[in-house]
Amino acid sequence: MPKLLLPVLTMLLVSSCTTYQYFTVDSSQLPKDDQRSLVMENDTMRLSYSFSGGGGPLTITVLNKTNQAIFIDWNKSALVCNDRSYSLAQTGSAFVGSAVRTGAGTADLAGTVNVAPQMEIVPGQTRISHLVLNLNLTLPPFRMRLPDSSGKQKIHFNSRPPIVYKAAQLAESQSPLQMKTYLTFVMGPGNGAEFVESHTFYVGKVIETRAWPSEFPLYKEPGDQFYILYQN
How far is Cα of residue 165 from the mean position of the Cα atoms in its chain? Predict the structure, then answer.
């Protein structure tokens, strides 16, 4: 009886490659603390700005150094990026999730939850931290094309093959992502004295690599660095 030869089907899985860009945020006005957040401090308050994480989640921390309450008026606060203003009053918060339906698998959900704009109180001698927006979700797409002069570099990590990356250093005047915060405060209850704090930021360095954050030794979740990813 002849032996039956069965054809062997070989499946080739073709997937796109993920590339990461790591952005370092600098400021000509503000120094950086030990966590590399950008900091302003005076006799009234200590303001710190952190961009750490995927997409650039801008977190503002306010330490009230006085003995009376300070109010943050988010309705009169904004982030200006490349001459376009984005309100920091969160009237709508995006959400994503999944729902399980018996016998029908899962369904992805996405939408917006309405949140009333607010005045936020910072009592005397206390601090608050507020995630005001995510740059990558709020701003127009800002994937940056690195100049041809950005040569490839290598770095070793955990005895593995070297990680290849490209890097570009940017002057403030040449940075394609320039930002300015405009924060409105009220000192004291009732009709207290209103004042504004405003600070400028820019992307001063861009690194491009295929190494994801947990495997890239040049990213340790500092306050001045965030990343985006895209498919090639």
Answer: 21
C-alpha to C-alpha distance for 192 and 170, rounded to whole angstroms: 41
Adjacent-strand bridge partners of 222:
none
Q: How far apart are CA 123 and CA 101, in angstroms?
A: 46
Looking at residues 222-227, what average pLDDT do you find? 98
- Residue 32 DSSP symbol: B
Return the ∠ at Cα 79 (arms to 129 and 81), rounded to 5°. 135
N-term to C-term CA, the chain: 52
User: DSSP alpha helices (H): ranges in 29-163?
Assistant: 135-138
pLDDT in tens, 131-186: 999 999 999 988 998 877 788 999 988 778 999 999 999 999 999 999 999 999 99
Is the pLDDT confidence value at 62 over 60?
Answer: yes
What strand order describes the sheet that includes 45-50? 38-41, 45-50, 57-64, 127-134
Q: Which residues have a Cβ under 8 Å from the Cβ of 138 and sit 6 or more positions away?
A: 79, 86
Residue 29 near residue 49, CB atoms below 8 Å: no
> Which candidate, 79, 78, 118, 112, places its Cα nearest to that of 97?
112
Q: Which residue has the tokens 């927006």?
A: 133
| b/e map 91-104, b = 16+ CB within 10 Å | eeeeeeeeeeeeee
Rounded to two decimals, the pTM is 0.81
